[in-house]
Specification:
Radius of gyration of chain A: 22 Å
Structural class of chain A: mainly alpha
CATH architecture of chain B: 3-Layer(aba) Sandwich
Distance between the termini of chain B: 16 Å
Shape of chain A: elongated
CATH class of chain A: Mainly Alpha
Structural class of chain B: alpha/beta
Bound molecules: adenosine-5'-triphosphate, magnesium ion
Order of helices and strands of chain B: HEEEHEEHHHHEHEHEEHH
CATH topology of chain B: Rossmann fold
Order of helices and strands of chain A: HHHHHHHHH
Strand content of chain A: under 5%
Number of helices of chain B: 10
Oligomer: heterodimer
CATH topology of chain A: MetI-like fold
Largest sheet of chain B: 6 strands, mixed
Number of strands of chain B: 9
Number of helices of chain A: 9
């Protein structure tokens, strides 16, 4: 009984994430219309066969913009999580493995960053390097490092005292080899599920920053920026909010279920 | 026995003291675990180390390979020539890698082997320790305890060490499997002419495995001598006590040629 529920979470999550990936690739290859092409005749057009999600206040095709927006959100999230994970694994691994003063210094810096909400941390970085898609990736990436570093550190601390690490050391394996060839694969299951959850947090954070107007810059679309624009017309044309909102909700749900499935699997 | 005397000395320990860092009121102190331990292991010798729990057997092993670093005295071991078989193979085999990969790791670390050669050697070793080639693709948790210990022995031998430290290599295993693993260890030792520091608290097993025996208590050597000397004419009261407790007391005093 329990076994069945596990796989169900995983399957639904995988399907939703799969759909999202299809949209991302579709948006990269070719959108039905130019997502930035304005057409005054089509302002606030209702959904139709030609424009399945209707058009926005500039008469741009919402479906095309969502395809592009999902792509941008995806890139920002992947970039953010990649920076957070890679730097987090390096720092957390070193701290957990060596301990001592190195650990003290790095983890205290970590605590300082961690003390701020990640959105706020990202705002500070953005204020230093300016707004934009790639700036957001860097800002959110930095904001995400501490939580990954902590996780990896505690996992490395747990693993390093096990006999297999001693055995590798006695064989003459270098510290780097022990850390990344012997310990890291054992830390993978834990890292994987938090990568997926991190992905979700990145989607939400990107939306938040774009909503504030400092993320992906107009006229380019991102789910957060679309929501922010649509808010002005919430009563006039609620569909403008609903479509990107639902897509984002499904995306987050998909990753959450996937993370659940992966961690339950272990 | 004459022959053992002529063999070269591989391990030479002189006046070894080992310490652990221990928390005491007001800071860290040093706790002495080994006290003035001296002995030699010669090539081809199976050296039995016996003592009750907490007597410092593992500490001695760890000092020899440099895991315990706070030591005084001389420790001479062949450079890169000591390999270790741990007590619990469930912990000493990396759960994230397959048996084949684990067997090849010592070669990978040493470097200079082609992929084919490493694979070939791993397969030969697997056979040597009594497992068929299909086990190459298994993860450690897909093996029984006995099979795991066979793999750990294989990994230790892949290091081509002259001295093998086996710290209670069978005490985590089923009684029925214990005899098989001990027989394997003995067979490989003779085939490959390696020395073994065999740590155990089972005097019967030590009798069957070893040709030289050292008894320890509270970090000190009680006595050490050729096996038959220890088992048939023990000098120390503590040794006699251990032998009696193991049900071997009736042998004391006999000449012991064929016990
Ligand atoms: N890491 C450590 N820090 C402090 N004290 C330790 C440490 N490891 C062992 N000791 C102490 O050193 C003494 C010897 O321990 P050791 O593990 O060498 O005994 P042993 O003879 O191997 O026992 P066993 O037969 O139970 O394996 C014990 O009193 C133990 O409590
Ligand atoms: Mg021990």
């Amino acid at each position: 009984m329990k076994k069945k529920r596990k796989s169900l979470n995983f399957i639904i999550g995988a399907v939703l994430v799969g759909l999202m990936l299809i949209m991302v690739v579709w948006g990269w290859i070719k959108t039905p219309y130019d997502p930035n092409a304005m057409n005054t005749a089509l302002k606030f057009a209702r959904p139709s066969l030609a424009h399945p999600f209707g058009c926005d206040n500039f008469g741009r095709d919402v479906f095309s913009r969502i395809l592009q927006g999902v792509g941008n959100t995806f890139i920002v999230s992947v970039g953010t999580v990649a920076i957070g994970t890679i730097v987090g694994i390096l720092l957390g691994g070193l701290c957990g493995y060596y301990g001592g003063w190195l650990d003290e210094i790095i983890m205290r810096c970590n605590d300082v960053i961690f003390a701020f909400p990640s959105i706020f941390m990202a705002l500070i970085v953005i204020s230093l390097i300016g707004p934009g898609k790639y700036q957001v990736i860097l800002a959110l990436g930095i904001a995400f490092v501490p939580s990954f570093a902590r996780l990896v550190r505690s996992e490395f601390m747990k693993q390093k005292n096990r006999d297999y690490c001693l055995a590798a050391e006695l064989m003459g394996a270098s510290s780097l080899r022990i850390m990344f060839v012997h310990i890291l694969p054992n830390a993978f299951p834990v890292i994987l599920s938090s990568v997926i959850i991190g992905f979700n947090n990145a989607v939400i954070a990107e939306a938040g920053l774009s909503y504030l107007g400092i993320g992906v810059q107009p006229p380019e679309a991102s789910l957060g920026a679309m929501l922010s624009d649509a808010q002005t017309f919430l009563y006039k044309d609620p569909l403008l909010c609903i479509f990107p909102g639902v897509v984002m909700a499904l995306m987050i749900l998909g990753f959450a279920l996937l993370a659940d499935g992966v961690s339950e699997d272990k | 026995m004459e022959e053992t005397k002529k063999r070269e000395v591989l391990v030479k320990i002189e006046h070894l003291n080992s310490y652990y860092r221990q928390y005491k009121k007001g800071g860290f102190g040093r706790k002495q675990v080994l006290k003035d331990v001296s002995f030699e292991i010669r090539s081809g010798q199976v050296f039995g180390l016996v003592g009750e729990s907490g007597s410092g057997k593992s500490t001695l092993a760890k000092s020899m390979v440099g895991i315990v670093k706070d030591t005084e005295g001389t420790i001479e071991v062949p450079p890169k020539g000591v390999a270790m078989v741990f007590q619990d193979p469930a912990g000493s085999l990396n759960p994230a890698h397959k048996v084949g990969w684990l067997l090849q790791e010592p070669l990978r670390i040493r470097g200079g082997f082609s992929k084919e050669e490493m694979e070939k050697r791993a397969q030969e070793m697997l056979e040597k320790v009594g497992l068929s080639a299909e086990y190459m693709d298994r993860f450690p948790n897909q093996l029984s305890g006995g099979q795991r210990q066979r793999v750990s022995i294989g990994i230790a031998l892949m290091q081509e060490a002259k001295v093998l430290i086996a710290d209670e290599p069978v005490s985590a295993l089923d009684v029925t499997v214990q005899a098989q693993i001990l027989a394997l260890l003995k067979k490989l030792q003779q085939e490959m002419d390696i020395s073994i520091l065999f740590i155990s608290h089972d005097l019967r097993v030590v009798y069957n495995m070893c040709d030289y025996v050292m008894i320890m208590k509270n970090g000190e050597i009680v006595e050490q001598a050729r096996r038959d000397r220890i088992y048939f004419t023990p000098k120390e009261a503590y040794t006699k006590q251990l032998l009696t407790a193991a049900g071997l007391g009736d042998r004391i005093g006999k000449t012991g040629k064929h016990a």
